[in-house]
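2024-03-11 09:14:02 INFO queue: dequeued item Venom protease-like, len=340
2024-03-11 09:14:02 INFO validating residues
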Amino acid sequence: MNLLAHHKRVSRALPNTKFCPENSYCMPISSCPILKEIIKNECVISNRVSSLGCGYQGSGLVCCPQISEATSVNHDKLVDGQLCGQSAIQGQDYDGIGAYPWAVRIGFKNVINGEVKYPCTGSIINKRVILTAAHCALAKADNYKLYNVRIGEYSTDTDIDCGEEFCGLPVQDIQISHVVVHPGYEKRKYKNNIALIVLRSPLNYTVTAQPICLPESWSITNNNGILVGWGKSASQSEASVHQQILHLPIVNLKKCSNVYGNTLPITEQNVCAGGEKGNDACSGFGGAPLLVQHGAYYYQVGILSFGSDQCGAQGVPSVYTNIKKYVNWIKENSPVIYNN
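2024-03-11 09:14:37 INFO prediction written
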């Protein structure tokens, strides 16, 4: 008997049953892949899970979010056996812990006192490869050296991050094996500003650590970009302790070139986003992923490369590396997932 039929049978047999919201089905928690994964990998707040119950009290049934057929069988989106560009936490306008699980923090260690700082952001391509900007991977500061990647973090001021429904696992701090910088990178022009950080050991996928999808052959028709990172936005006096989500319009290159063209060339290797008054990334977002949602999946279309001193000024967007132009280079230099 399929699960939908089971749901209908239980509903008919038990009057006054508590029903589920639209796009979810009443079923045993062991048959719900999203909730089962959270229970397996995370520290769940029990009273929140119990509030998802359906059927009679004590029935053991929960409201499980529906997974579309396309999502459940799309093998083209599998990375190391995991679907890319999908959050296990579903909900309209939800942007809390686990909503954007592909963003990671890049750490630099002070060789004198051992302090680790995280000034840049990257994104998970697979269990061994993190995508970021070349200027982050090659960053140099007095006594600080590129050291590790922090994976699965949401809040920077707690050891265990908790949302309303569940708590995440402790962060994964994984040291770096080596860095692959695009051979055409030009620091002064931010040209080919892209790099891969290869981890010394593979990360573990959890609800708060998932791979992002690379863009495909389609054109960007959705101009609603999403930037994920831990920096300071135009509306803030200092960086937030929580992972930040900025919704930024993607701007056409001609408008962007009018802003930067005299000092830094804007080409098809770039994507521009922002330009709304008081709404842009200002500092600490270097290397952060710019996303668009295409169908049921999130894709990374940009890496934050540089911005203007006039952060958050009307008509002044920030500039990103256009991932679509580098997909082949990323695949050629990420044999861990593409050649196995």
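2024-03-11 09:14:37 INFO annotate: The longest helix spans residues 3-13.
2024-03-11 09:14:38 INFO item closed
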